[in-house]
Amino acid sequence: MNSTELLIEKIVKGMQEKKAHDITVVDLSPIEDTICKAFVICTGNSPSHLQALVDSVAETARKEAQSKPTAVDGLRQSVWVAMDYGDVIVHLFLAETREFYDIEHLWADAVITEIEDLD
User: Fold this and answer.
1) Which CATH number fits domain 3-108: 3.30.70.920, 3.30.460.10, 3.30.70.660, 3.40.1160.10?
2) Residue extents of the structural domains in the chain
3) Strand partners, 71
4) DSSP calls for 6-41
């Protein structure tokens, strides 16, 4: 397993630990000239749930993949929070915002993997 795959695995684990919904991994690596290798996307129930998800993802990635985000944006409004890990960008949405932007379907050539909810 390479470092990007490990990071994705730990990001998903952090999301699952706080009961994120509709976790999706969008593999952009086969596509040339993308800003990263993958998106990991999930849905939270409320702004406070998004905050808990951000904290869990950050802690799990730091402890288990030795990785910290270079930037975290959107915490003030907490309807769409983005965490930049370089090769991986994490998107945490409220349901309405995720549905509106539908970012996982912007790249037709991307490989999309949906992770089953744990509950």
Assistant:
1) 3.30.460.10
2) 3-108
3) 84
4) HHHHHHHHHHHHTT-EEEEEEE-TTSTT-SSSEEEE
Identity of the amino acid at 31: I
How far is the C-alpha of 28 from the C-alpha of 102, rounded, in Å? 15
**Burial class for 91, CB neighbours closer than 10 Å (0-12, 13-18, 19+):** buried
Per-residue pLDDT of the chain (119 residues; tens, 9 = 90+): 799 999 999 999 999 999 999 999 999 998 888 889 999 999 999 999 999 999 999 999 999 999 999 999 999 999 999 999 999 999 999 999 999 999 988 888 899 999 988 87
Which residue, among 85, 96, 19, 78, has the nearest Cα to 58 in the 3D structure? 85
Query: What single letter denotes the amino acid at residue 12?
Result: V
The reported pTM is 0.94
